[in-house]
Amino acid sequence: MAFGGLDKHANGQPMAEINMTPLIDVMLVLLVIFIITAPLFTHAIRLDLPKVSSQPARETPQTITLSIDDTGKLYWNDTLIGVEQMRARFVEAGRAAQKPELHLRASSATRYDVIAQVMGAAQQAGIERIGFVTQPAQPEAPSPAR
């Protein structure tokens, strides 16, 4: 018997052997679970991350340059405008036969919610192409040899 205790021939001695069957069953179940779930842990998400250096974007007559400074002020082609004026201009540009491309230039200290509002307004107006303007990385000057 596995648990003993009811055997008449045991002479009242405790059973000295360990039943390994439940331990082996649990280990096999865990092994199967790990075999099934292991491929899920190695799944990677592919992202197209922006490159540090890029080619200058071509300016076309249908390009809108919208700049946002540190305080959240908006500049439409270097002219200061308000949020409602920006929305009206986006709607007007979205109605054009050839949709313009929006070049969004934001300061590194600009709050994300301002950028999200601008992108949302552009999308609602039907502008589909939005590009982020960045400064090219400055190459490090070589240190003088000693």
CATH topology of the domain at 63-132, which one? Nucleotidyltransferase, domain 5
Indicate the mean pLDDT: 77
Helix vs. strand class: alpha/beta
Shape: rod-shaped
Specify the biggest β-sheet: 5 strands, mixed
Helix content estimate: 25-40%
Intertermini distance: 85 Å
Query: Uncertain runs with pLDDT below 50, 5 residues or more?
Result: none
Q: What is the number of beta strands? A: 5
Q: How are the strands of the largest sheet arranged?
A: 3-2-1-4-5
Features of this protein?
146 residues; 15% strand; 5-stranded mixed β-sheet; Nucleotidyltransferase, domain 5; alpha/beta; single chain
List the helices and strands and how they pair.
Elements (H helix, E strand, L loop, with lengths): L20 H21 L21 E6 L5 E3 L2 E3 L1 H12 L6 E6 L5 H14 L3 E4 L14
Parallel strand pairs: 1-4, 4-5
Antiparallel strand pairs: 1-2, 2-3
Description:
The N and C termini lie far apart (85 Å). With 146 residues, this protein is of the alpha/beta class. The chain has a five-stranded mixed sheet with strand order 3-2-1-4-5. The protein has a domain at 63-132: Nucleotidyltransferase, domain 5, CATH 3.30.420. The longest helix has 21 residues, at 21-41. 32% of the residues lie in helices and 15% in strands. It is built from three helices and five strands. The chain is rod-shaped, with a radius of gyration of 34 Å. It has helices spanning 21-41, 83-94, 112-125; strands at 63-68, 74-76, 79-81, 101-106, 129-132.
